[in-house]
Amino acid sequence: MNFNKVILVGRVASDVEMRSTASGQSVCSFRMATNRVWKDKSGEKKEDSQFHNIVLWGRQAETASQFMAKGSLVLIEGRLQNRSWEDKSGNKRYTTEIIGENFQLGPRSGEGTKAIPQQKNKQENDEDIPVIEDGDEIDIKDIPF
């Protein structure tokens, strides 16, 4: 059995670039940043950030370009895809992308998001997503669902 599935939660790290193929299909791409926080053996807090190239197609691309902006929190579900091409100098180049199959926008923070229609329950929109660090004990009361 083969399995190629990626689920990421992070922040949009670049402006969403919208394009159309020659056949008229919408496609957008953007970079996404994820991070992890942990404590090393001496107890010092460490942090590492990773950047990912994301590609969305069709209606999802149109929706993303309309509502996502740099800094937006987003959950992406998709698959890994490797591509290769030759650059202008004739060198073979490679890239790994995440082809998004589903995405979900995070809560609005007021900054870093494009205009989204107002929702009635403002308190729910302003809640921060809790950060659980490696080595922390998880309390069932802290799980938001």
Characteristics of this structure?
single chain, five-stranded mixed β-barrel, mainly beta, 2 helices
Largest sheet: 5 strands, mixed, barrel
Secondary-structure arrangement, i.e. CATH architecture: Beta Barrel
Question: Helix count?
Answer: 2
Quickly give the structural class: mainly beta
Give, in spatial order, the strands making up the sheet with the most strands: 1-3-4-6-5
Helical content stands at: under 10%
User: Which spans of ≥5 residues are poorly predicted at pLDDT below 50?
Assistant: 115-126
**Overall domain count:** 1
User: In the CATH scheme, what's the topology name?
Assistant: OB fold (Dihydrolipoamide Acetyltransferase, E2P)
Which superfamily, in CATH terms, is the homologous superfamily? Nucleic acid-binding proteins
Give the class-level CATH name. Mainly Beta
Number of strands: 6
Overall pLDDT, averaged? Answer: 83
Task: Report the portion of residues in β strands.
Answer: over 45%
Please compute the radius of gyration using only Cα atoms. Answer: 18 Å
Write the layout of secondary structure elements.
Blueprint: E1 6-12, E2 17-20, E3 26-39, E4 45-57, H1 58-67, E5 73-86, E6 92-105, H2 122-125
Structure description:
By secondary structure, this protein is mostly beta strands. The chain has a single domain, classed as Nucleic acid-binding proteins (OB fold (Dihydrolipoamide Acetyltransferase, E2P)). It has helices spanning 58-67, 122-125; strands at residues 6-12, 17-20, 26-39, 45-57, 73-86, 92-105. A five-stranded mixed beta barrel has the order 1-3-4-6-5. A hairpin with a 5-residue loop joins strand 2 (17-20) and strand 3.
